[in-house]
Amino acid sequence: MKTYKIAAIPGDGIGTEVISAGVDVLHALAARDGNFALEVEDFDWGGDYYKRHGRMMPENGRDLIRNHDAILFGSAGHPDIPDHVTLWGLRLAICQPFDQYANVRPTRVLAGITSPLRKVDRTELDWVIVRENSEGEYAGVGGRVHQGLPLEAATDVSIMTRAGVERIMRFAFRLAQSRPRKLLTVVTKSNAQRHAMVMWDEIAGQIAAEFPDVTWDKMLVDAMTMRMVMKPESIDTVVATNLHADILSDLAAALAGSLGIAPTANLNPERDFPSMFEPIHGSAFDIMGKGIANPIGTFWSAVMMLEHLGEPQAAKRLMTAIERVTADHRFHTPDLGGTARTADVTEAVIAAIQGAND
Ligand code: NAD
Ligand code: MN
Q1: Does the structural domain 1-100+263-358 have CATH classification 3.40.718.10?
Q2: For ligand 1, is residue 72 a contact (CB within 6 Å)?
């Protein structure tokens, strides 16, 4: 029997609440499946670790998880610590050195959930956003000089490389090709940003030639926000830069009902390093510790993890269980307008896994 080693990094805020729910669900799934086992190792890295040790994770932290099969991540972000410290000290400290350059963010309106878009029905909003996850606006290049003086200056320099753009375009075209509509929208801003984004567009055109069966179009990011709201049915697969896709995917999550539902995979497609799976939401300071965080984003991320591990049957079983539960309004957490608690949703999903007779 195959045993997968999973590194669980709950992090901060509601990250700890949703990851423990996710781990419970994964164990129930492995027991139900019987063909694989999960060995989950917990790492207490994050804001509290920072307060004790002055860093978000140990210096050899990446070595401790390098040989795991996958990483399940909660959220980095603590009320007492600046956000750029927590983000760069943990999440980006894993994503970038592990070269998880393809961030995949599916969006669908799940059974029982109503989109805030009045007219949209469930079949009209079925997207996958591919986010460039290794460079661009979040390359971390820049600096500050003359701090506190009137002549203070600061830069954040966006770096795009041909190799980086080619690999994310190829990944996105291949993903679009694998979906029934074979439709890709390349998001850009090459009207205002006249160097890197122009190269981005050129490379999109070059890679498109390798995928003659994929229909693709190009859209400025500002116009894309409008299209997502006004013509959601015209969109299928989307590729965008690190910053653009970060923003578009929060909008996508909201249009699908709640930020608490949305999953993501940070993939190293070559499998040189473990990939990382996480809900797209953050620590949610306003609701942390209350036991009402929606765990569905984490469960759906676990589905993506199982697909990546090569357990499609377990992935399908979990997704079916999730939608069986979202279809029932009694199990909607407050972000969806309900009164259910994290534990109620978790128990219901576990019951649906155990009851499934497929
Ligand atoms: P957030 O995602 O934490 O919260 C935004 C809003 O959505 C809040 O009102 C919150 O209550 C709600 N929400 C989010 N997830 C929910 C869930 N599962 N169930 C119910 N409601 C949910 O974003 P923010 O407030 O901008 O950020 C808070 C902290 O989290 C910051 O420190 C930020 O840097 C960090 N953050 C981390 C990540 C990450 O590690 N991947 C992502 C986003 C934000
Ligand atoms: Mn984000």
Answers
A1: yes
A2: no
